[in-house]
Amino acid sequence: MAHNHKHNHNNSVKNIKVAFFLNLFFTIIEFIGGFLTNSVAIMSNALHDLGDSFSLGLAWFLEKFSSRKRTDQFSYGYKRFSLLGAFINGIILFVGSLFILMEAIPRLINPETSNAYGMLLLAIFGIVVNGIAFYKTAKGNTMNEKVISLHLLEDVLGWVAVFIISIVLIFTQISILDPILSILITFYILFGVLRNLKATALLFLQAAPKNLNVKIIDKELKKDSFIHGIHDTHIWSLDGEKHILSTHVIINKNSSKKDIEKIKYKLKQRLKDIGIEHSTLEIEFEDESCAGYCK
Ligand SMILES: [Zn+2]
Ligand SMILES: [Zn+2]
Fold first, then answer.
1. In the chain, how many domains are there?
2. Residue 251 neighbours by CB under 8 Å, 6+ apart
């Protein structure tokens, strides 16, 4: 079992590493190609792939460190490193998008000629590379693989758009099509970036995780007739998946040690069922006054 797990883990790290280097290599070719063909649409795709490379690099880094547990300094482990990485990636893509729009928008008024044959070549390359990656991940069963394959399908479609535009440009002189496509792709990137930045910011600001809040938790815990009251509940998430909770639970003043053990076990189990993996419960008795230190 142990050996098998290690083997699978090493394989997954290796796959991410290969995908990272291929993606990075392709991104560099796109940036050079976009510059040489004078196509802002290619530049938009290059920026998108730069974001993909960054994500893959981050995933590779985190997979390598995923075996590392919490330390004395990082008592929650390394989960939040992925948040920080996603935040940095979002800012890079946001700034990159602004640069591309600054280049593409003036071209709506003063279109520049781009090398249509060069664009066609890059588009075919893009369709083949992303198409193979899509085909490989589409066979996977895990949620993660499904998300990745859907993303790769979008990437293929982005290159199909460049493919179509470059063919049109070979036969016509409608140069404005290149900045129009570029702006569309860039807005699509920006839409995703802003959505991710918002989600990441909420996690950093320790907002309650999606579909949960203090009211819901209190209601859930009070279901038990042993519980007289709940207060000072805090809930937040490490990375959107691993949630943390602390709360005060008021119980009957005559509860025995055994009762307390039972209640703690029951409540922790119930919290686990609604997705809260790590909870800290402070037990208080009915006749105990915590007004001095609670709230
Ligand atoms: Zn992509
Ligand atoms: Zn209290």
1. 2
2. 226, 227, 228, 259, 260, 263, 283, 284, 285, 286
Q: What is the CATH number of the domain that holds 44?
A: 1.20.1510
**Does residue 235 fall inside a structural domain?**
yes
- In the reported structure, the alpha carbon of residue 198 is separated from the centroid of ligand 2 by a whole-number distance in angstroms of 33
For residue 16, pLDDT beyond 60: yes
For residue range 29-75, what is the model confidence (pLDDT) as tens digits? 999 999 999 999 999 999 999 998 988 888 888 777 765 678 888 88
For ligand 2, the distance from its centroid to the CA atom of residue 70, given in whole angstroms, is 28
pLDDT tens per residue across span 88-139? 888 999 999 999 999 999 999 998 989 999 999 999 999 998 888 888 777 7
pLDDT at 29 (0 to 100) = 94
Residues forming a β-bridge with 246: 234, 280
**Going by DSSP bridges, is the β-strand pair 243-251/278-285 parallel, antiparallel, or unpaired?**
parallel
Does some domain include residue 292?
Answer: no
For all residues of the chain together, what is the average pLDDT? Answer: 87
Instruction: Report the separation in Å between the CA atom of 284 and the middle of ligand 2, taken as the mean of its atom positions.
Output: 7
Classify the C-alpha dihedral 123-163-40-151 as positive or negative: negative
Q: Is residue 18 assigned to a domain?
A: yes
Helix (H) or strand (E) holding 293: none
- Rounded to the nearest whole angstrom, what is the distance from the C-alpha of residue 292 to the centroid of ligand 2? 9
Domain match, 58 and 192 both: yes
Residues 128 and 47 in one domain: yes
